[in-house]
Amino acid sequence: MTVTAYILAVLLDLFCVFLGYRFRFQPGPAAAGYGVPADPRGDARAYLSVKGLRDGTFGVMGLALLAFAGARAEAWFMVCVALVPLFDTLIVLRNGGAKAVAFGIHFATAIVVLISAGLLFAV
After folding, report:
1. Quick check: 85 and 113 in contact, CB under 8 A?
2. 68 contacts 47 by C-beta, under 8 angstroms
3. Helices 108-122 + 2-25 axis angle, to 10
């Protein structure tokens, strides 16, 4: 279970880094994939930059915690970070996004992050 816990945590952290990169360098497609399309040439430019910075920072922070503080610190971090996709679910739903995206991407991500936290607590 230890290997699974660490692999899942690293993959989730790297996925956050990827999302941050995508929102910074491919903001239009990234916003559409998020579930609330936004034009990176207009008023949404700042929002997309902040979203990219937030996601990328979460990934780097998670990797640093896992490497330097251990599984328990990473587990608590994952519990806290799970709030982000939970609220992303609500944001997508409140802004006319597809329920499939809200639940199939964001809510499912929150569940996977919480599973990762549980596995890390068990290590």
Report:
1. yes
2. no
3. 140
